Structure formats: structure tokens, C-alpha cells
């Protein structure tokens, strides 16, 4: 397993006292593995972008604060609800996945435009109008005859 993308010291700076360094290091390693899988990069020879480190720290802290992935908890006639999609441990939110993809691609959004080139270029001509006035534009494609 590769080294974690964030340090125990960085995690401790965000969380305060860490009860189990072993659990914290495991969470950092797991979060780093998920981030690498999402990004498709390992950052062995370079430092990861800052946003990647932030995501690793957030995912690890979330796993340490809420290891069972409980979504809600009650007191009167005690109840607890768990997330349907998470079995606990480390996971990435949709926004974290999006931030990783942006950091890797350098794109601010998934919206863009491309220019398409068609093999059928219209030929624009004009045709006379029966009732007088200016000629009307007429477009033909390819081998068609213009009127």
C-alpha cells in the first residue's frame, strides 16, 4: 500500500486529540486509496493538489467520528438509523468525488462546447421573389440543384 496522501499531524490539527493513532493511520490510508482510485493517479513522485489532501482528511475524520456511518440517533426508546449505501468505514461524498475530478482534470465544470464539422456544407444562394422585393436566401446541401 502506498503512503497516505495526508499526515497524522494534519488530521490531528483538524480533529484535536486522536484516540487511536492506529485507527487514524488506517483511515488516512483507506481515504488515500479511495482518492487515488477516483483520480486514477497515485502521486508517488509529486505532491497531490491541496484539494486532494483536504478530501483525504475530511474522509478520514468522518470515518473516525462516525465509524458505523449512523445517519441519525435518538434517545427516547433509543433508535439509530444507518445509511443504506455505506457499511461504515471510509467513504467519499459526491461533492468530494467531484472535487477530486476537478483537481485532476483542471476543469471547473462538466459543461463545455465543441465545434462540429459536417461533411455537408450548405451553399447559400438567393432566389427571386415572385411578388417583388429583395431576393430570398436559399441553402442547398451537396449536389442538389438550387432553384
Please characterize this protein's 3D structure.
The chain is α+β, with helices and mostly antiparallel strands and 147 residues long. The protein has a domain at 8-105. 37% of the residues lie in helices and 13% in strands. It contains 4 helices and 4 strands; from the N terminus they run H-H-H-E-E-H-E-E. The chain has helices at residues 8-15, 21-39, 50-65, 94-105; strands spanning 70-73, 80-82, 122-127, 136-141. It has a two-stranded antiparallel sheet. A hairpin with an 8-residue loop joins strand 3 (122-127) and strand 4. Helix 2 packs across helix 3. The protein is elongated, with a radius of gyration of 29 Å. The model has no long low-confidence stretch (mean pLDDT 85).
Layout of secondary structure:
Elements: H1 8-15, H2 21-39, H3 50-65, E1 70-73, E2 80-82, H4 94-105, E3 122-127, E4 136-141
Antiparallel strand pairs: 1-2, 3-4
Helix pairs in contact: 2-3
Please work out how many helical segments DSSP would assign.
4
Structural class: alpha+beta
Return the average pLDDT rounded to an integer.
85
How is the main sheet built? 2 strands, antiparallel
Radius of gyration from the alpha-carbon trace, in angstroms: 29 Å
Q: Spell the H/E element sequence.
A: HHHEEHEE
Task: State which percent range the strand residues make up.
Answer: 5-15%
Order of adjacent strands in the largest pleated sheet: 1-2
Termini separation comes to: 72 Å
The number of distinct β-strands equals 4
Percent range of helical residues: 25-40%
**Quaternary state of the chains:** single chain
Low-confidence stretches: none
Instruction: Indicate the overall shape.
Output: elongated
Amino acid at each position: 500500500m502506498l503512503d497516505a496522501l495526508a499526515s497524522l499531524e494534519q488530521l490531528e490539527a483538524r480533529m484535536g486529540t486522536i484516540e487511536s493513532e492506529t485507527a487514524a493511520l488506517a483511515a488516512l490510508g483507506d481515504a488515500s486509496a479511495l482518492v487515488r482510485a477516483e483520480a486514477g493517479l497515485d502521486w508517488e513522485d509529486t505532491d497531490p493538489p491541496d484539494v486532494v489532501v483536504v478530501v483525504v482528511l475530511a474522509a478520514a475524520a468522518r470515518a473516525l467520528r462516525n465509524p458505523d456511518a449512523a445517519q441519525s440517533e435518538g434517545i427516547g426508546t433509543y433508535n439509530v438509523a444507518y445509511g443504506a449505501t455505506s457499511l461504515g468505514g471510509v467513504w467519499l461524498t459526491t461533492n468530494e468525488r467531484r472535487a477530486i475530478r476537478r483537481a485532476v482534470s483542471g476543469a471547473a465544470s462538466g459543461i463545455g462546447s465543441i465545434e462540429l464539422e459536417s461533411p455537408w456544407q450548405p451553399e447559400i444562394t438567393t432566389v427571386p421573389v415572385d411578388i417583388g422585393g429583395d431576393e430570398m436566401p436559399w441553402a442547398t446541401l451537396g449536389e442538389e440543384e438550387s432553384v
